[in-house]
Amino acid sequence: MNYPIDKLHLLTLNVGLAENYSDWNWKNVRSPFARLYYVTEGTAQLELPSGIITLRPHHLYFIPAYTQHSYICHAPFSHYYIHIYEEDQNDGSMLDEWDFPVEVKAVNGDLDLVKRLCFVNPFLKLRQTDPGVYDNHQTLMSNIELNQRRPFCDKVESRGILYILMSRFLKHATPKADVRDNRIQVSLSYIRKHLGSKLEIDELAEMTNMSKDYYIRLFKQETGETPNVYITKRKLEKAELSLVTTRLPIKRIADSLGYDDYSYFNRIFKKNSGMTPMQYRKKSI
Which of 26, 31, 65, 28 is nearest to 48 (CA)? Predict the structure, then answer.
């Protein structure tokens, strides 16, 4: 993994200790930030697209951003939670470049690091555990602004702790291989890093030394989606992130994703999410 560390910008959105009593059963959670858990006592389960994972004490768990998941808890269960927002994604998300293990065993000192992160950031503790309450535009913006106003020394220490904890997962992570064909894999990586550009299928095909028709057929064969569908989904995910984590005007968000036609951006967003960008932002407030 020879990646420039200065391009990885991690921010602590929330951190704290949660003590649950059979009440940690939220369904179909999907957020624009990643989650990291350190389990201290009890057991619960995490339902992911890949299956159900049993959460065990003294283990760390990682859920990437935009991963739909559910929680299953029928007994007392205690864990530390850290919500991680990746800043400065103009060139794409670095965390999105890897496949991470869901679970790793904690090492000596990890619990002390998590406790220290809580101590440095007491104002980032969740008031409620319901994602429907805290996973919204107003709360995310408030937490990002709180982070920006912190003393510089606290920012450095918090980011250092996040780097250490994420290194446990990075040690076992592998470069993301969405598909078997290396040419399509290179194309997918290029798309994720250039979501702010107009991505023309002709140019993508030319980069892979394929005809346009063959590129489209192979892309769909490898991913299950046409290039246009894949590109649109990734662009709209980034639009969702901007809508809930920034105060940028919607037209500027559309421009930043290569949509010159504001009306078209509104239509395509509504077609995929069931609501307009403005309705999506208001729903998150």
Answer: 28
Determine contact, residues 29/70, Cβ cutoff 8 Å.
Answer: yes
Do the Cβ atoms of 83 and 33 come closer than 8 Å? Answer: yes
- What amino acid occupies position 3? Y
- Cβ-contact 40, 78 below 8 angstroms: yes
Span 74-98, pLDDT tens digits: 999 999 999 998 876 555 677 887 8
Instruction: Collect all residues with Cβ–Cβ distance below 8 Å to 140 and sequence separation of at least 6.
Output: 13, 32, 33, 85, 244, 245, 284
| Dist CA 206 CA 193 (whole Å) | 18
Name the DSSP letter for residue 275: S
Question: Which phi and psi angles does 98 have, rounded to 5°?
Answer: -125, 155
- Which among 23, 41, 144 is positioned nearest to 83, based on CA atoms? 144
Report the chain's mean pLDDT, rounded to a whole number.
Answer: 89
Q: Which amino acid is at 89?
A: Q
Confidence band of 44 (pLDDT split at 50, 70, 90): very high
Cβ–Cβ under 8 Å, residues 86 and 93:
yes
pLDDT at 90: 59
Q: How many residues does the chain have?
A: 285
